[in-house]
Records
---
Amino acid sequence: MSKDLYVPLSLSAQSAYAELQDELRIQSIDRFRALPGSFHRQQQKGKPYIYYGYRDIDGTGRMAYVGPEDKRVLELIEKHQVIKSAALHDKIKKQAKSAEALGCAITLTKHFRVINRLEQYGFFGAGGVLIGTHAFLAMGNMLGVHWLSSQLTMDVDFAHAGKNVSIALGANVKISVHDALNSLEMGLLPITEFSGKTGAQYRNPQDPELRLDFVTPQTRNGGPIAMPELGLTLECLKFMEFSLINVTQAVLISREGACIVNIPSPERYAVHKLIVYGERPIQERVKANKDLGQAAAIFKAMFENGQANLIRDAWSDALSRGPGWKRRLNQGRAALLKQYPELLAFTQ
């Protein structure tokens, strides 16, 4: 098994990514000018996050998620009144093309259109999280590396914490995911499952490469979870809550432009992949091996970039959750080391 799981992006590519992220943050902050309100700082599990509070047309108070607090976000908020949005879109497209040319990974255009439209409709501001391979793709650019494994996938996967899990993205914005997808006119149809409720899965019968899944953490009732504020029903998955703690933001790049998305933190994403490894049925061994490959690449990139403490914190959290979690994590670790024995020093 090759030890080459990624190659570092050039400093030029990393700079292009950082500049693109700034432009997208400016665009996101600029949207709030149409909504009279103010920015607020809130603590979630000891970490600061920024929200925008405003009144909806019916007078209901809403809190839209802006992102984790950092120096750059605060600087952009201070300047948001003087932002000129007219030329911003073209600038973002040019910056995205530059980032691609310099080596940043891009996603398929058809998948980007869906993700970008949901971002425009406020899905991520309402607590939505991009998960799965598209999140992994965005993580590489964010970490300053280019993954060497194949990125092709048919699925576009999204998660939301629902009402029973407390995470930093908890917000009460009301949107319609169904209307957002219909507006694309891409043939996406909701699949009727879960006692006749629709919305947890969308498919295009004519295009097997266009499939959307919306999930949420398992609840005591077993789910599914109806979310009227999102206009859809969420499928429940075991252990999903682990990935939705300390969610971060990244830039998703395509040939049509770029957008800011919420994604799991890389360390929790990687540990979660090991936890659920044994949960996949035998007919999904290919996907299970892909999970191991993604976890391996993230572990190696983060350890070699001096972020071992983040991996260890996520690992310790998983072990502290009970014997079932510990057993699954050790099972995933054993499978990981069987394929990637060079990672032994990274997983102790």
---
Amino acid sequence: MAKLTLKSSTALPVTSPLMYAAYLKPTGLEMVKLNAYSADNGATWTSWLNQPDFDRDLPHGYRREGFPIFVDWSNGRIVRLVPSMDTEGLDPTLEEPPIALQTYYLRYRVSLDGGRAYLFDDVVVQQGKTPLNPVEGVTRGRNGIFMGDVGSQMIRTRAGKVLIPAQACLLGEGGKLANPGGGWTYTDVVILIGTWTTDGHLTWEVGQRIEGDPGRSTRGMIEPALAELSDGRLLCVMRGSNGGAKDPEWKLPSYRWQSVSTDGGYHWSKPEPMTYDDGQPFHSPSSMSQLLMHSSGRLLWIGNLSDANCRGNDPRHPLVIGRVDTLSLRLVRGSVLVVDDKRPDEPGVNLSHFWTFEDRATHDIVIAGARYSEGYKAAHPHLWRVGVE
């Protein structure tokens, strides 16, 4: 059994330069992130401005948001997803404006030179659809399709497909947003399946939606994290939620959810609660998580656990890492390591919104992020390293 150990926990004066960093090639220590390159495993960085500037002449209020880049090591191509909104006059200072649930859609850009220049800026459109109706069941201006937190990382499958784990709002009667669970939002998970073309574009298909049960998760399925197993199965782990108008006393169990595909992402099992290896479900808040396949072949899950039933998003501590059994797809209880937790002198802490990867030089798991105060009023940058023995 893999033994996980906390090797270091370091408070930083500023956000770690390893935040959102990824390796550029299948081997070696070159790293890239948006607008920057490192030749020495992230120790030093060279910055640049991407060319061309696709966003320079956008109308006021349009948004082109940043999202961590994805490197396809099989061909060296970099994909930059761009969550977008074309809403003229929208106040650029507003965070998560309600209209985003109707207007979000996805664009993508591809670079062949390590992220310095991008070939095009295109809408992600399912084959047979249009930019205004980019995915089956999604109409721009009525219901949005968008990314979750950064744990929703793209992956490349052994079959050569590039998968985007996204989420989409639902349309109800009269073309208005549907909210069958009564929570703050309600989404299905949508896996977009990309195939490379010779000119550097991707053609897009869409897998069967992963639909939650509004009687078990008041916000549906949210912020999917993907991993491919050695036998070709795909595991998708998702955030759910309790609370809201139909569960005002937070009585629904606060589960983490999972679904499995055996055909490359085209079809998915009904989502069920993620459990420990003894079959017991565990409590987890409505927060992001991440799956990471270690070079040793071990599958790791990083997220938040709780000893008691959670209340929607809270509490987002402790931050844990544990091994997922690659046969049963259950979290091995004895492997779970608490990376960080609320301190006695803190009224609360949020240990979410992190970025995780395996350090190729040491094979440690690097977790870059912050210790956010209660209510996210302050962020204290932090870096954790976990050893895998």
---
Amino acid sequence: MSENDRESTVPALKVLFFSLLQEAAGGQKQIAWPVEPSGTTVASLLVEFYARWPELKAWDGQIRVAVDLEYVARDHLVKPGQEMALMPPVQGG
């Protein structure tokens, strides 16, 4: 199965990139990312994102992840139909 076939047949997760992470993700603000119905962990998804957008990996230790508006740990299971938000650290002045 090609990557395009997989993307069209596997249900998707909605992924949002905020602030500086949008630039690191090639200007993406929101994408649909294929996820198996059984789900996958946040950590596994981050590895996939880093492979696609290597600039994101520079933020690895600082990225905050929320799923369905709640902050989660990297071992959190994410399933299709959910919304995952990637946020950089809060900056203030």
